[in-house]
UniProtKB/TrEMBL annotation, chains A, B:
Record field: transmembrane: none
Biological processes per GO annotation: nucleoside phosphate metabolic process; ribose phosphate metabolic process
Positions of the Nudix hydrolase domain: 58-205
Keyword flag Iron-sulfur: no
InterPro entries, A to Z: NUDIX_hydrolase-like_dom_sf, NUDIX_hydrolase_CS, NUDIX_hydrolase_dom
Name recorded for this polypeptide: ADP-ribose pyrophosphatase
One GO CC annotation: nucleus
C-alpha cells in the first residue's frame, strides 16, 4: 500500500512493523497499534493508530450511501408539481460522540460482500428503499492521521412513483434509526439547521454538501479550460 | 452533547459511563474507551470507541483547510491568460494507512487556539501561504461509528499576484509534506488520477470534490423552489 510518489526517485516511507498495544479488557471491534515506520530520509519513527478488527475480505471497512431520490411524474392533475429530487438521511444516536448524528446511510462491509452489495443492503435495511448504484469511489481514508479505517462512497439512484408510500425499514434488533428526506437543493441549509438543533453532522456528508453548495455559488470556478 | 431529536417526546439515548480500556504500553495520542449507554427504549448497551487524548480547550480536535487560490491579474501583455482558480493539496506519508495520502492541509488545534487560528497557522506551516478564513463549519464528526474525533472545515481564500513565486514551507522538524496546486475545475479528475497512482485520498476531500462535481453536472437538482 505504501505507493511512492511516482514523480520522485527518493526512497519512500513505509511501515516496517505494526504491533498491537493490548487493551484490557479487549475490544472485539477496535484495537490500538503502534506502527514503526521509516521516513523517506531514512529515519525510524513510531505512530499510534486505531484499527477496526472487522475489515472485510475486500480490505475496505465500510460504505456510505450517497443517494438521490427521484420521482416518475404521471400527474392525474397536470397542475400537480413533481416532488423535488431529494436525498434520504439517517438520524441515530452514536455513542462515540454521545450525540444524535446526521449521516447518509452507511455500514460495515460484510465478509465476502462487495461495496456495492453492502451499499444496497444497508440502504434497504436502514431506509427500506431499493436503488441502483451509479458510481463507486476509490477506497478513501476516513481519518488517516488517527486510524486505518477506509470506506467507499457509493452513489445510489432511487426512482419512485409519485405518491408511493414510504417503505418499512428492516433494522437489526435494537437499532433505532430515524429517516429524513431532504430536497437536494436544501441539503446544506438543512444540515446547518440540524447542527443548530444539536445534531452532529458526519464530516463526509457535510463535505459533500459544502462542495455542492460551493459549486452552485461559484460556477465560474468550475469551467474547465480548453 | 446528547441532544435529542427536538420533534419527539421519547426519552433520548445517552452515554451513562465511559471507561478506559487501558493499553500496554500506553499511547500518548489515542486511547480506547467503552461507552455504556441507554437506548431511547431504555436498554443498556456498550460501544467501544477510539478517542484522541489531545482535544483542545475548544472541544474540537482538528481543522482542515479547504482553500481557493486566486490571482490578481495585471497583465503586462494583455494576451496573458490569468491562472485558473486553484486549490493547494498536501501529499504525505500517513502511517495509519501505510500510504501516501492526498488531503487538504489540516492539523490538530493547539491548546487555547480557535479553529480559525489553527487553520491559518497550519496552512502557513504546511504550504507557506497566508489567507483569509471565509467560512467555518460546525464541528462535524470524523468517523462517528468508531471515534469521538471531530473537526471543523475552514474555507480559506488566498489571493496572489500573477507570477508570485511559491513561498517556503515552515514544517516541523521531520515533517515531509509535498504540495500540489490543482485548478478547482480539475480537482475531482486529479483526485481520481492520484488514486490510480496509488495515493489514498482523504474521505473528506473526496466528498467535497464529489459534491462539487455532482452539482456541476446536475445543476437542475440544485434549483431551490420558490
Amino acid at each position: 500500500m505504501a505507493s511512492p510518489p511516482s514523480n520522485t526517485s527518493t526512497p519512500t516511507a513505509k511501515v516496517t512493523s505494526l504491533t498491537d498495544l493490548p487493551c484490557t479488557p479487549t475490544s472485539s471491534w477496535i484495537k490500538l497499534q503502534r506502527a514503526t515506520y521509516t521516513t523517506s530520509s531514512g529515519q525510524s519513527r513510531t505512530w499510534d493508530l486505531a484499527r477496526r478488527t472487522t475489515t472485510s475480505a475486500s480490505g475496505i471497512d465500510a460504505v456510505s450511501i450517497g443517494n438521490i431520490i427521484r420521482h416518475h411524474h404521471h400527474p392525474k392533475n397536470p397542475s400537480t408539481k413533481p416532488k423535488p429530487p431529494s436525498t434520504i438521511l439517517v438520524l441515530q444516536f452514536r455513542p462515540p460522540v454521545n450525540a444524535y448524528t446526521v449521516e447518509w446511510p452507511a455500514g460495515l462491509i460484510d465478509k465476502d460482500e462487495t461495496p456495492q452489495q453492502a451499499a444496497l443492503r444497508e440502504l434497504y435495511e436502514e431506509t427500506g428503499y431499493s436503488g441502483t448504484v451509479i458510481s463507486t469511489s476509490s477506497p478513501v481514508a476516513a481519518d488517516p492521521g488517527m486510524s486505518s479505517a477506509n470506506m467507499c462512497l457509493c452513489m445510489v439512484e432511487i426512482w419512485l412513483e409519485e405518491g408511493q408510500p414510504e417503505p418499512e425499514q428492516h433494522l437489526d434488533e435494537g437499532e433505532e434509526i430515524q429517516r429524513v428526506v431532504v430536497p437536494v437543493a436544501e441539503l446544506y441549509d438543512r444540515l446547518e439547521g440540524l447542527a443548530k438543533e444539536g445534531y452532529v453532522v458526519a464530516a463526509k456528508l457535510w463535505h459533500w454538501a459544502a462542495g455542492a453548495k460551493f459549486a452552485v455559488e461559484n460556477p465560474g470556478l468550475f469551467v474547465k479550460e480548453g
